[in-house]
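=== RUN LOG ===
request id: a7f3
mode: sequence -> structure
chains: 1
length: 207
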Amino acid sequence: FRDFNVIIQDGASRDDSVAIAECFAARLPKLILRSEKDSGIYDAWNKALDAHVQQLGEWIIFLGADDILAGPDVLERVHENLVNCPDTLKYACGDIEFFSEDGSERRIRKAEASKAYSYFPLGMSFAHSALFHRKCVFASERFDASYRIVGDYDFLIRTWDAQEAGKNLNVLVTRMSTGGCSNNVGNAQLLKDEVDRIRRRHFPVRQ
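=== RESULT ===
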């Protein structure tokens, strides 16, 4: 399956990230790479969306630096699942495997798109790193870069506007390291503060 491109938004890293990425360009249908400073994850994603709007495919997945597709046939299986989907579908939820670098932890989280819309006041019933977004959701919306950890949660609440907007893929899409930003114990308080802020914004308690 070759109907895809890879867009890399590098945060002006000083290591060999850019050079390593460029080494793979000949093996990919298309590699688009930018390296510039950003203020965080969601600012970087917004920069990539704005700079490459003409290169965006019909479906978009955001992978962090420690995230990988779960197998060589993932995109083909996702394509087969979405090729004849209705226009009302905006999101396609894949399953995800969390793993630790030392091999001590491995667990799979199944997506639950059927309850996503009603579950948003409590959290997300799927993992964002295994979520495909239809291009149309970015026509007028971007991530709120004031969030450091859960800007994806805020974005999905704003754009997932009906229960039928999402479906399960029933495909293991992504493998994600447990050392990521949202799983880091050092970020626990910031994570709680940002989630509380989102809930106050979107689901205020009526007096």
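=== NOTES ===
The first strand starts at residue 6 and ends at 10.
The chain has a mean pLDDT of 94.
=== END ===
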